[in-house]
Amino acid sequence: MQINKQSFFNLSLRGLSMGARFLLIFCLGKYFSIEDLGLYGIFYTTVTLGILALGLDFYTFSNREILYAKNEDKLSILRNQLLFYGLTYVCFLLPMLLIFFYDVLPFKFICFFYVILVLEHLSQEFYRIFIILSYPIFANWLLFLRTAIWVFLLIVAYAIMQYNNYSLAPIFIGWIIGAGLSVLLGFIRIIKLFKGYSLKPIQLNWFISGIKVCSFYFFSTIALKIIESSNRYMIEYWCDLKSVGIFVFYSQIANMINVVIFTLFLMVIYPKLIIAVNDKNIIEFNHLKSYIMKKVLIYSISLGLVLAALIYPILFFINKNEYFYEIVTFYILVVSNIFLNISLVYHYILYAFKKDFSLFISTTIGAISSLIFNVILIKKFGIAGAATSLLLSYMILTISKAIYSKMAEANFE
Predict the structure, then answer these.
(1) In contact, 394 and 347? CB cutoff 8 Å
(2) CA-wise closest residue to 251 among 222, 230, 237
(3) pLDDT of res. 260
(4) In this structure, are residues 10 and 268 in contact, taking their beta carbons and an 8 Å threshold?
(5) Where are the alpha helices (DSSP H) in 353-381?
(6) Per-residue pLDDT for 162 more than 70?
(7) What is the pLDDT of residue 59?
(8) Of all helices (H) and strands (E), which one includes residue 340?
(9) Which residues are within 8 A (CB) of 304 and not within 5 positions of it... i.e. 6 or more apart?
(10) What pLDDT is recorded for position 217?
């Protein structure tokens, strides 16, 4: 019952965060121009890719180290992780100016971009740290601050003041406030948790080992982001910003399937999966694997059907014909997210077995497939082609990870 209560509370917090995110998308879709929604989508995607460059997926090494370390060693690991990010900031923040020189984003957003980028990255890292430290409720409180509370306040302000001309600037300011508060509280909680522990000397070999491990995950994540995000830039190039806006709108709604499944099951269970493999507890591992796969299949399909039924009332609320014309795109994206959830089960199995190279190969295959499908399908079919490309890529990703997972499990003793 403890896990069920925790899962319910986590889902409630994450549900509010998710609800705020999609409430924001609904408001953007209804009250902002579709071009502004497309610009927001490009900004959001670029921040996401920028976070990847700043983090280099180093958390895949450091968080696993935290999970296995003694309590007195965990603070030193966190200190080392922060030092590593300081180095990545020095290396990558300046070159990111090219984003504005090449008109990926307009120069007027440059300050918003850099402040949001750094705060969002730190906030995400704190979220992951508290998950791995088995504080999922606090982690979701941080997520709520970062993604939800400012959205609710902003929408209330819009409703009271009844703006006629909507701008993206207040959204970015609210984003900064929410992410900043979550980072501040994250630092405070870490200080309280590890008060009295001493720091160990910095060891260069630890960083070298971390870079070796995270390099596979970093390139794997790049490959995954190619699958997830390259379509937006290609849609803008071959179609227009309005098409990006429609695609982003449908993508955010379809992604609800992934968010709910991760919160309800994967976030709580995957650390236990890692421990079962580390302890060579094959009975517990098989139980957890079967449980996760069963729940993922049942609830992903159920959520997909619910969204398929709700999309028309949502579109009547938005009341813009452009969305109705591309409704097929939404249904394809729903199926795509179901396959993504299935692939995540195999992803965490490979992660637990430390099959870093297998993850890299499988995601690389999916990324190459995605680029090929995007070039062929977006040029001919627009955003419906982008959604189809995403579906085919996730299917390939799922199959390849399933094959590597079976190989890893065959040697489990």
Answers:
(1) no
(2) 230
(3) 80
(4) yes
(5) 356-381
(6) no
(7) 92
(8) helix 327-352
(9) 257, 334, 335, 337, 338
(10) 78
What is the mean predicted confidence (pLDDT) over 175-203? 93
Cβ atoms of 130 and 67 within 8 Å: the answer is: no
- N- to C-terminal Cα distance for the chain? 31
Query: Which of the 8 DSSP states describes residue 331?
Result: H
For every residue of 147-194, DSSP letters joined together read HTHHHHHHHHHHHHHT-SS--SHHHHHHHHHHHHHHHHHHHHHHHHHT
Amino acid at 87: L
Q: How many CB atoms lie within 10 A of CB 295?
A: 17
> Is there a contact between 277 and 330 (Cβ–Cβ < 8 Å)?
no
pTM of the model: 0.88
d(CA 97, CA 407): 44
Residues 6+ apart with CB under 8 A from 176: 112, 115, 116, 119
pLDDT for the residue 161 = 72
State the residue for tokens 């299935």: 342
Count of CA atoms in the C-beta half-sphere (13 A) of 90: 6
What's the CA gap between 121 and 34, in Å, rounded? Answer: 28
Q: Which two structure tokens, joined as six digits, stand for 215?
A: 């390099």
* Residue 336 to residue 249: CA distance in whole angstroms: 15
For the record, the structure tokens of 54 come out as 């700043």
Distant-in-sequence contacts of 294-301, Cβ < 8 A, 24+ apart: 295/261, 295/264, 295/265, 296/261, 296/265, 296/266, 296/341, 296/342, 296/344, 296/345, 297/342, 299/260, 299/261, 299/264, 299/265, 300/257, 300/261, 300/337, 300/338, 300/341, 300/342, 301/338
Measured distance CA(248)–CA(49) in Å, rounded: 16
CA distance 127 to 138: 8
Report pLDDT digits (tens) over 333-379: 999 999 999 999 999 999 888 888 898 899 999 999 999 999 999 99
